[in-house]
Structures are given as C-alpha cells and as structure tokens.
From TrEMBL:
It comes from Falsiroseomonas algicola. Residues 1-17 form the signal peptide. Keywords: Signal. This is NAD(P)H-dependent oxidoreductase. GO terms for cellular component: cytosol. It comes from the Bacteria. It holds the Pfam family FMN_red. Residues 1-159 form the NADPH-dependent FMN reductase-like domain. SUPFAM superfamilies: Flavoproteins. GO terms for molecular function: FMN binding; oxidoreductase activity.
Length: 194
C-alpha cells in the first residue's frame, strides 16, 4: 500500500515531520510512506489555474493520485490548520480539468482527495496536542469528499521532552499512539477500497 504523507509545518526541524518519520518506521509489510513537499506551492489563486495548474500543484496532485491512503501531520496555528496545509488541501480539492489533467487515464474520481482514506496525527507544545487544529482539519476535509478515518487519533501534546536531540520522537506512549493510527489507517484504507 502506498501512503502519501503531508506535513503542515515547513520548519526544517519540524516536530510534525518527525511524527511522519516515526510513522514510516511502523508500517506493516508491503506498505510504504512517502512525504510529498508542499512548501513550494503558490498561495491558492484561481487566476493561476489558467492555462494550467502551476508545476508544484501538478506534482502534488500526481503524488496524491498514486496514493491509496494519506497521512497528515497537522500542527496547530491559532487553534486551526496551518496555512501551508490548508493551501495544499485547497489545490488538491480542485476538480480535474479546471487547471488541466493530472489524473491517470481511466480514473473516475474528479479530485485526488475524493474517497481517499485519510489518517491524522499532530504534535504541539500545548497540552491539547493539536486537538483543535485536527478538528478544524476534519471539517475541511469533509467538504473534499475524503474518507477521514474516525479513529484512532493521535495528539502528541506537551511536545517538549518527547523528542531527542536529533529531533526524533522518543516518547513511548506517543510512539504507540502513532503506531495505532498507522495500523488503523492501513485497515481503514483496505475497508474503504473494498
Ligand atoms: C502562528 C503560530 C500559531 C500557533 N498557535 C498555536 C496554537 O494555537 N496551539 C498550539 O498548541 N501551538 C501553537 N503554535 C505553536 C506550534 O504548535 C509549534 O510552533 C509547533 O512546534 C509547530 O509544529 P512543528 O514543530 O512541526 O513546526 C503556534 C505557532 C505559530 C507559528
């Protein structure tokens, strides 16, 4: 199973990126996780959809079209979705044809997010561990037609001290929570596909 990861933080030392790295070590046999960059996407602007989506948008969409599941690491900015992540979702939510064609031949879905199984994880220094941003993200994804996994959820709060000097997630309960989301997402994606 091919899982695409998106990280809502563009920071080089992002703790949310570290969650995705941890998740990549917990995949069952046969599953791969590839993180797609979103830092080079222009800000959403419908004027940029003609004559064709900008190249970084097309690249993101092609990544998503190849995915059987999506794992999003969502930081929390002012109790909501960080702008780079919302921007990526907005570009991916646009129907094929508006800015060209990025879907593989024969694909019936109109957008790469439609019916795509999605799992969500997140970490922040606050106690709630991105709970508010994740709720915001769920609401937004609902309108894209993505199949967001109801649970398990993973909120890695009070993040300081849960990562080592190299920036890797070391806190065992947090790693276990990420592992539950990874296993749940693989099972969810198989169920949604059948
Ligand atoms: C503009 C801004 C707003 C933030 N708002 C919140 C917030 O509402 N809740 C929270 O827990 N952390 C908040 N933070 C702190 C981030 O969660 C923290 O910087 C976190 O490390 C970001 O994730 P990263 O390590 O993956 O970059 C905010 C940070 C920024 C830059």
């Amino acid at each position: 199973m091919r899982i695409i990861g998106l990280c809502g933080s563009l920071r080089a030392a992002s703790t949310n990126a570290a969650l995705l790295r941890a998740a990549a070590t917990m995949l069952p046999e046969g599953a791969v996780l590839e993180v797609a960059g979103i830092g080079d996407l222009p800000l959403m602007n419908e004027d940029l959809e003609k004559p064709a989506w900008p190249e970084p948008v097309q690249r993101l969409r092609r990544h998503l079209w190849t995915a059987e599941a999506l794992l999003i690491a969502c930081p929390e900015y002012n109790a909501g979705i960080p702008a780079p992540l919302k921007n990526a979702i907005d570009w991916a939510s646009r129907a094929e044809g508006i800015g060209g064609v990025t879907a593989p031949a024969g694909e019936a879905r109109k957008t790469p997010l439609a019916d795509l199984p999605v799992g969500i994880i997140g970490t922040s220094p606050g106690m709630l561990g991105t709970a508010r941003a994740q709720q915001h993200l769920r609401m937004s994804l609902q309108s894209t037609g993505a199949r967001v996994m109801p649970g398990p959820e993973a909120f890695v709060g009070s993040a300081r001290g849960k990562f080592d000097a190299a920036g890797e997630l070391t806190d065992e309960p947090s790693r276990a929570a990420i592992g539950r989301v990874v296993a749940g997402l693989v099972a969810w994606a198989e169920r949604v596909r059948d």
